């Protein structure tokens, strides 16, 4: 919130009303200067009394009908920016992907899972463009599909 407040020149206490007064061009400029923002739920004790995972595990959520779905290339254009991997236009090498998966929490893969994961998503492919596309597929699955399926399992 502070970064958005600084970039917009808005007081944090009145950020929403201040942003509503901005023109489309101003909002575009502010967004470009701030970069991607990540928002996550936070247990505040009132609206969200516990962590979402705890509430789901305890089945302490209102039973309502809902539908969970995913599609291809889930927000895939923003994933490289969010992961600070912006130079993917020319593709990427498999060894770079393996290093990346070992050093980040993207898929939270234990070492013994890394090889089957690489086999499943990349096979024996070494073409940098196809490797990049497979990486984006893996990233989308890790960030959107797997959480959607996990959430659905809690509602059985």
From TrEMBL:
InterPro entries referenced in this protein's UniProt entry, alphabetically: AB_hydrolase_fold (IPR029058), CarbesteraseB (IPR002018), Type-B_Carboxylest/Lipase (IPR050309)
Domain of life: Eukaryota
Domain Carboxylesterase type B: residue ranges: 2-155
Protein name: Carboxylesterase type B domain-containing protein
Family that this chain belongs to: Belongs to the type-B carboxylesterase/lipase family.
